[in-house]
């Protein structure tokens, strides 16, 4: 019996370890696929297909559903909405079978997005409502807020102000204040809601709130929406000259490579601005591009609006036949999706949703009462002996397995912590030894060699009074000048080996002083920039950072053939980002990584528990160091 029990435990342990290895492999493949989504979407799709197959084989349910969901994301981004719908449907089916509520809700929410992109608004509303009902069970306020925000956007299309603002206020109610990016997007949507009903004061107020968050976050996507929203603000106010610069800034930030919807929206709006400014040729060019793209991706709403725009443009160009043709096409398309039946259907869906919420509360009370009755009946039944024995055996087995697993986990953590402490101690001893040796050499240079040179200079100076010839006196003065230069070099080397300014003034002033010396001595342009509020560190850690900067700049001066460089410190709450860039010729990273200088840099990076990222090309090199200040204070 003991032997059998041990075999069971061994089997369970082996199975768990194998599953963990498979899971890590799949997660790595999914990370690789995510990195390819923008640049190589087809390769990303192939990787997600493979991760789905492996996830199903290894019963990794989280990986299986995400592989389906992410394929839908990619097809949405590239405008293939039918393919996106197919994978979101598969996501929903899989999550229903595996009882994954979060995955099922995300499937419905993204399916709703797809229908909204296609202009099929009743279907979009229906799926948003399904996702909200599931998300409400999870109590995830951030995702509930986003869902209400999306639902509000659909009602915008029907100019239903009551429901639009009802769901926007719901979104604001659920939005966590710590989620700054999403809060800024929500403020933008609320501002757009007010602007549609000519409440410009409220609209501007919400746009400024969004802008204030964006300034702090410095997020390009948020800046895109800030510029677009202010452009829309002035466009609705018919201040077209003020609107155009904002839309031009938004155009520059829009990621046209993947976001086709955003591109189409901007092309349509900007064509309208050119139309209002009587620039019909530019308006016609953008409208034709928007029409072609709308048809390509099946965006019916954009196609309808663009057909009407083209009719107006040709009318202004005195081309009545073309104007009539485009207008007729717009009416035909309008009948297919902007019918009164759609509006009725959305109202019915809203009523159904509110009714179901009330019914749900009543049903939950009834279920609770019924459950109490079942529990009472169940408590009166006698438990069979075999059932009790089996249950106890399972509990004991799981308890023992869990105990051993936790104990092994704690041991592994202790071993890992010990290794890390030993490694840190080694690095600290190495760096301390190096700094002591630097101080010793600096002291010897300053007190020994520098003193000897000064004594030699003094002796030579006395020879001037010995009646030397003019030529000998000239040569003697040259020798004295050379000794002065050598003294200056010795002082510079001594200072670089152990800069006293770190102890007196701190890291920032030491680096600023170092840059000034580089510029004055090497005829080399080097700038030092600081962003954020300075956070003081221990002198040891500041010295380590100084040495890293010093080594990088030395490498630039020796090997890069650069004419200028830049050092940048960026403090962000608990993180410090250091960037060192040059305009040199770059280098081979594989060859340089074996050098002593690079190894010294990496040793100090490891000591700080920091990360170093190097990007090099024929146009120059950029070093980026990220330091978690919580680990080095």
How far is it from the N-terminal to the C-terminal residue, by CA? Answer: 56 Å
> Which strand order spans the largest sheet, edge to edge or round the barrel?
1-2-3-5-4
Largest pleated sheet: 5 strands, mixed
Q: Name the CATH superfamily classification of the largest domain.
A: Histidine kinase-like ATPase, C-terminal domain
Instruction: List segments where confidence is low: pLDDT < 50 over at least 5 consecutive residues.
Output: 1-19
- What is the top-level CATH class of the largest domain? Alpha Beta
Number of helices: 25
Approximately how much beta-strand content do the residues carry? 5-15%
3D shape: flat
Judged by helices, strands and strand pairing, the structural class is: alpha+beta
CATH topology of the largest domain: Heat Shock Protein 90
- What helical percentage do the residues reach? over 70%
Order of helices and strands: HHHHHHHHHHHHHHHHHHHHHEHEEHHEEH
Number of strands: 5
Give the name of the CATH architecture of the largest domain.
2-Layer Sandwich
Indicate the mean pLDDT: 78
Total domains: 6
Radius of gyration: 35 Å
Coiled coil: 410-444
Protein name: histidine kinase
Organism: Flavobacterium alvei
Catalytic activity: ATP + protein L-histidine = ADP + protein N-phospho-L-histidine
